Amino acid sequence: MSTRLSQAEQFQALVAWLRTAINSPEQFTVSYDAEASQFIRFNKGRVRQAGQVQQASLSLKLIHEGRHADVSMTLAGATEEDQRRLASALQQLRDTLPLLAPDPYLLLNPQPWHSHNVQDPPLPDTAQVLADIRRASEGVDLVGFYACGPISVGYASSEGAFGWHQANSFNFDWSLFHSNGQAVKASYAGADWNSQRFAHRMQQAREQLAFLGRPVQVLAPGEYRAYLAPAALEEVMSMLTWGGFSAQALASKSSPLQKLYAGDAHLSPLVSLDEHVSQSLSPAFSGEGYPRQDLSLVKHGKANQQLVGSRSAAEYGLEVNGAPWGESPSALAMAPGTLAQADILKQLGTGLYISNLWYLNYSDQPAARLTGMTRFATFWVENGEIKAPVNTMRFDDSVYSLLGSQLEALTVERELLLSASTYDQRQTASNLLPGALVKKLTLTL
Question: What range(s) does the Metalloprotease TldD/E C-terminal domain occupy (predicted)?
Fold first, then answer.
């Protein structure tokens, strides 16, 4: 009869079996991903769907004389059955390897490192969360999605490396709809649910909702002062992370931040960006089997370190620093500024308050020039007071302007924005960002 084990024990048992099944000089690496998640969907402020998902998967790489192949499988959570699945996968890889050519950029970590990090603060009480949401959303049309639970990541290799990471977190992503069809989008995420902080966040959204009932302000294309809320700034940063800090992209001259790293352009001295793994939900090791560390990507507006994975290190003679797959940040943190939340409208004066952006793309990638649309609660502000909502408009501007020459201030308060993606499973990626006040944003239509 199969024995049920905890996720950590399950992974350890499979690794122990693998070590006995490998025939030298074969080598292996194995990655483990699991979640035990609760999902609740809201419509018109009420629970419409609730459920739980518990799943685990494993990815095995077999290496022999420079050749390697991978296979992924879903685990049953029963020891004997999972060992049978793993044995079948191992044989499949042994049959495949002779058909492959050696990989010149394969760079395995020979160090038998160990990492164990379990972030297990008590998960929010569901009854309390539901009561808080019900109370805070009384009288408004709320549509939202709540996800909560532990995410576990494991890694092991035939060289003796072993890593285990668990992070408990929640993420509530919601919108408040006005009767005219306009909406305010907001989120609240972290590891510790605080009823007062949530109520404050909801109150901000409700106040913005009230302004959506006013007549729309029509703006002509042109240049405007603007405040980008953290969620809007996240869209800008998400575009930059597509190769912006990647060693491979920089070496192949395809990074949108090529000019920054070449020293031909710079951002505002107010801008410092870190990959802050040590204070995030992300594991302290990569799926390639290298320990991760905190990195300073941009320091006071100037390029500093880059994200280096094993293949880039092998191809370009660099030192691996544990960059995740794709060499994109997974725990990006921007340093705070000095602008207080209470002073944002006053400092903006007259201009745009932009809560969200969407549909971003590059209009000129080498110049880090972005185009996209305003979304949800975007307001026209006059003399420090919100006057009217603004219809969706397109912007087109360079990051070297928005976060460079035209950046006036960053907020003291920063917002933790967790990935809301549930594709395959929940994610641990996050952005910790302030809001940004810019002297000039270009609207094109």
Answer: 221-443
pTM for the predicted model, two decimal places: 0.93
Would the pLDDT of 331 be above 50? yes
Instruction: Give the separation between CA 258 and CA 252, rounded to whole angstroms.
Output: 10
Distance of CA 7 to the CA centre of its chain: 24
CB 37 within 8 A of CB 421: no
Q: How far is CA 89 from CA 75, 95, 104, 313, 408, in A?
A: 12, 10, 24, 29, 56
Distance CA 333, CA 330 (A): 10
Q: Is omega for the bond preceding 150 within 30 degrees of 0, making it cis?
A: no
Rounded to whole angstroms, how far apart are CA atoms 431 and 230? Answer: 9
Taking Cα atoms as reference points, which of 144, 122, 147, 119 lies closest to residue 36? Answer: 147
Superfamily of domain 7-210: PmbA/TldD superfamily (3.30.2290.10)
Structure tokens at 389: 């909502």
How much of the chain, in percent, has pLDDT values that exceed 70?
A: 99
Instruction: State what percent of residues in the chain have pLDDT above 90.
Output: 92
Distant-in-sequence, close-in-space partners of 438: CB < 8 Å, separation ≥ 6? 225, 226, 227, 228, 401, 402, 406, 407, 408
Token duo for residue 386: 């919100």
pLDDT digit string, tens, across residues 108-124: 999 999 999 999 889 99
- Ramachandran category for residue 262: left, alpha or beta (phi over 0 → left; psi -120 to 50 → alpha): alpha
Check whether 2 has a pLDDT greater than 60: no
Characterize the bridge pairing of strands 351-364 and 369-382.
Answer: antiparallel
Domain boundaries, the chain: 7-210, 214-443
